[in-house]
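ASSEMBLY PREDICTION REQUEST
Request ID: AP-0331
Submitted by: J.K., bench scientist
Number of chains: two
Total residues: 273
Priority: normal
Notes: Please return the full assembly, not individual chains.
Input sequences:
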Amino acid sequence: MSAPAVLFYAFAVLAVVSALGMVLNLRNAVAAAMSLVVTMVSLGGIFLLLEAHLVAVIQIMVYAGAIVVLFLFVVMLLNLRSDEFAPGRQWLTKGAALLLVVAAGAHLVRIVSADLPEPGPPPAGFGGYAQLGVSLFTDYVLLVEMASLLLLAAIVGAVILAKRKID
Amino acid sequence: MVPISHVIGLSALLFSIGVAGVATRRNLIVVLMSIELMLNAVNLAFVGFNRMWAGVDPTHRFDGQVFVLIVIAVAAAEVAVGLGIVISMFRNRDSVNLEDVSLLKW
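STATUS: Completed
Returned structure:
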C-alpha cells in the first residue's frame, strides 16, 4: 500500500472517530467542539491528498480557525452544561438513529463496491490558487457576488439577532 | 492513491453520522455542529468527484472546488446567524434545549 493510501485511511479513521465523539459526547459541549476541530483538520488532510490544495488551506482556516472558535465562544459565553434526551421519547430517538445507521451502512456497501473510473494524474496547476482564482473570477463571478451579498446579510442578521434591546 | 469510491464512502459515513446527531441530540449548539459535519461530508464528495473527473473535461476542471468554496461561505453565514439565534433564545428562555422551543409544534 502506498504512502498516500496509508495517510488517507489514517485520516479517514480519525475523521470518523472524532465525528462519533462529537455526536455521542453528552457531557461536555466544549469537548464536542474540539472533536469537530479534529474532524475538520483530518478532512483538510484528505483534501490535500486529493490535490485540492487551496481548498485544504481554506478548510483549515475557515472551519478550524473561525467557525469552531465561534462555537466555543458561544458555549463559553452561555456557560452551557450537559443535555439530555427528551424524557419518554428515548426509544423513538434511539430507534430512529439505529434505523438511519443501518440504512447508511447498506448504502455504504453499495457505494464502496461500485466501480467509478480510476482518477488519472491531475493536469498541471490542478488545485492551485492561480487557476482556481481565474475560474472564480471568470466563469463563476456571479456566484462570488452572490456569496458576498449572503455574507453581508449574515453579518447584519447576526448583529440584529444577538444584540440587546436598548430602550 | 485510493479508489474514489472509498472517498465517497467516507463522505456518506460522515453525512450519516451528522444526520444521526441532528436526529438524536437536543442541544441546539451540537445540532448546529452536526449540520456543519453534514456540509463537510458533502464537500468531501465534491472534492473527490472533482479529482476523479480532472483532466477528462478540460472546460470544467474546477467546478467541484468552486462549489466547495461557496459551500464554506454559506456554512460560515449559517453558523453566524444560527449562533445569533442561539444567543437570543438563551436570553428569552434561559435554555438551549430544543424541547423548550416547541411553540409551533402541534
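REVIEWER COMMENTS: Chain A has six helices and no strands.
SIGN-OFF: pending second reviewer
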